[in-house]
Specification:
single chain, about 160 residues, alpha+beta, 5-stranded mixed β-barrel, about 20% helix, about 25% strand, globular
Length: about 160
């Protein structure tokens, strides 16, 4: 165990957070999400937590979710990260699971500010393309790569180019 990790665990123990540290660390990493299978979701935000370490919202899907015919042709903003957005949108599929509510993880507030994304409020209609867990196992959580909101597209992998 590294000294930094030991110090973090000791500090967390003093605050009663020992069980929280490893879970949070694993929950936020990209490695737990299947980046080979982008998922498309749309619906209305029913809960929003506009805060760091990243914005979270609960998206309620319609009873019948359909992949938009124009999804692969939607214009995408340039990002500083090398993301092949058109290929990602072309590969996007609907989830195989039937959950009506999904937790959506967005980027940190700083990055959303870089994109000048307006604060999403409960009731807002939006759609997202992102990644969930391998084989869609576990909770219905999607890490957003692109957010489509009020006629604009926001790339969340990095800042605008």
């Amino acid at each position: 165990m590294t000294m930094q990790r030991r110090d973090l665990i000791q500090a967390g123990a003093g605050l009663g957070l020992v069980g929280w540290i490893p879970v949070t660390r694993a929950h936020h990493g990209w490695s737990s999400f299947d980046q080979d299978r982008p998922i498309y979701l749309e619906g209305r935000a029913v809960e929003v937590k506009w805060r760091n370490p990243h914005v979270e919202l609960v998206l309620e899907l319609p009873e019948t979710l359909q992949l938009p015919a124009d999804l692969a042709r939607r214009p995408l903003p340039a990002q500083t990260a090398a993301v092949d957005g058109p290929a990602l949108l072309a590969k996007a599929v609907l989830p195989s699971r039937r959950d009506r509510r999904w937790e959506i993880e967005l980027a940190p507030l700083f990055r959303l500010g870089q994109w000048q994304m307006p604060e999403i409020r409960a009731g807002a209609a939006l759609s997202v393309v992102g990644f969930t867990f391998k084989d869609e196992k576990g909770d219905a959580i999607l890490r957003a790569e692109y957010v489509f909101l009020d006629g604009k597209t926001y790339g969340l992998r990095s800042g605008p180019a």
